[in-house]
Design goal:
The chain is an alpha/beta fold. It contains seven helices and five strands. The two termini are about 20 Å apart. The model has no long low-confidence stretch (mean pLDDT about 95).
């Protein structure tokens, strides 16, 4: 399963300690785009950076390639999407991975993409 950027951010917050446990049991990958989105935030402090890096360093990073970009182009031709979301969705489709996200509504229309929102599953 691939993790969306929003869950990486949530998992660094104390009130989401159960999410961190869920992630360790279910998540194996993240997109290079999520690394850029989370660690590239201009107001990130050192503690937040270390927390995000601690999550990402335990997962496999998937890079963009030409087939992923072609899938992203096809998706964006169908519907307006942010660049980050379309590249993350295309990465999931290319590698046949489900997506864990807190924003299922942004992706629900994509055929062949399996979605999980762990925030709906964890008490």
């Amino acid at each position: 399963m691939l993790i969306d950027s929003n869950l990486i951010i949530y998992a660094t917050q104390p009130q989401y300690h159960l999410l961190r446990t869920w992630l360790m049991a279910h998540i194996t990958h993240y997109s290079v785009i999520s690394r850029l989105e989370t660690l590239g935030y201009h107001r990130l402090d050192n503690v937040e950076k270390q927390a995000i890096s601690g999550i990402l360093d335990n997962l496999n990073m998937l890079m963009l390639n030409k087939p992923t970009l072609e899938i992203a182009i096809a998706l964006r031709q169908q519907r307006k999407m942010s660049l980050g979301d379309v590249l993350i969705a295309a990465t999931c489709l290319e590698h046949q991975l489900p997506l864990a996200t807190a924003n299922k509504k942004d992706f629900v229309w994509i055929d062949g993409l399996t979605l999980h929102n762990p925030l709906e599953e964890i008490p």
